[in-house]
Amino acid sequence: MQALQPSANTTDARAFDRIRWRARRGLLENDLLLQPFLADALEQLSAAELRVLDKLLQLSDNDLLDVLMGRKEAADDPTALIVERIRAAKNQAG
Predict the structure, then answer these.
(1) N or C terminus of the chain with fewer C-beta within 10 Å?
(2) What are the angstrom distances between the C-alpha of 19 and each of 2, 46, 71, 72, 94?
(3) Residue spans per domain, the chain
């Protein structure tokens, strides 16, 4: 799977569309966790944050759910920050 490579000053709609497409998962639980974050924060992410999110979305559905639910540790600190933002967006959405 090819990794997303947005430019340093990303406003490329294709990069956002690609992330949205990758976020469509086979497990409904992943969709329910990801969609509020994508709706609220996706277009405000920096290029570096988009790369971290893209890497996170390359996990299998079950591994992604485990990370988002806190059953597994995030791979690194930048990923942990994105995971926390995803969880916060879900909590705000209800």
Answers:
(1) C
(2) 12, 13, 24, 22, 23
(3) 30-93
